[in-house]
Structure formats: C-alpha cells, structure tokens
Amino acid sequence: MTWTPCCQRTVSVIVPAAFRLRGLNAPMLLRWPSAAIGASADYSVDFRDLLCDGERIVRAEISVGDAGSLAWESIFGSCVTGWITWSSVGCQQVSVTAVTSEGVALTCSVGITIAGTSLITPTPPEYAPNAYVIGDVIVPDADGNPLILG
To answer: What is the superkingdom listed in this entry's lineage (predicted)?
Structure first.
C-alpha cells in the first residue's frame, strides 16, 4: 500500500495563462486550511501546472521559520509534502521550493491561520464503555480486570 498526501491540505500552484504568455510573475494567494496550535499533519504544494513535459521534481525544501517544526519533507510526484507541527499563533507563511530535473527552482509561499486554542483531546475513560462498574466499584473478571458485558 502506498501512502499519499491528504488532498484537503494540498494547494496547487496555478499561474493564469495570460501571465505565462507575457512572462509576468503573477502573485498567487495560496492558503492551507486553518489549524490549531500544537496540531500536526501533512501539508502539500502541487507544482503540476508549472512542470514541462517530462520534467520532474528532484529536490524539495520547506521552510516553516518560527511558525512550527518540520518533521520531514518529501516528493510525491508533482507534490512537495512536509509534516508540520504548528507552534505559533496567527497568520503564518511557509516557503516551499521545488527544484526540477531541468534545474529550475520553483518557489511559492503558502499562508495558514493557526488558532490559539489547542486541539480538544478528551481524557480517555478509565474503563471501557461496556465495563461493569457500580459507582466506584468494578466487577472483576477471572484475571482481575473489569468485567466486560456484551
């Protein structure tokens, strides 16, 4: 089984045709979906529309700065993907660079908003939902563990 990046956190770098014909540099507003402080996931940029026929990405670099920490970065076809854990609140910018087999460096900046409240992670219950518990007393099975009903 082959792992692929999450499509919900992948943005495509698309330059309008009018800008490509004229050789102008079009400003692109790329944004990943919002996240919470302390959250971590895979985030990707798809450079498919900037690659020529037969061209491929041979090297990638992701710079998160003070926004968070990067566990790893990798290339998945035309996508540059990194596992990022966010440690700064507010609007953050991440720089993503892909170097192609033709030696062309493609760089873009992706924005993301990080919420100040951390992810809500409930404390797991002490016993399974189907354990036989009466008040503070558990009914044990033969091994001394809570008796499981059902």
So the answer is: Bacteria
Looking at the chain, which residues constitute the CATH 2.60.40.10 domain(s)? 7-115
Q: For residue 66, how many other CB atoms are within 10 A of its CB?
A: 8
Distance of CA 95 to the CA centre of its chain: 14
> Tens digits of per-residue pLDDT, 88-111?
999 999 999 999 999 999 999 999
Q: Kindly report the pTM of this predicted structure.
A: 0.69
Q: Residue 74 corresponds to which tokens in the numbers above? A: 């990798």
Identify the CATH class of 7-115: mainly beta
Q: Nearest CA to 93 among 30, 18, 8?
A: 30
Sign, Cα dihedral of 14, 7, 57, 68: positive
- Which residue is it, tokens 């036989």? 132
Give dist(CA 97, CA 27) in Å, integer: 16
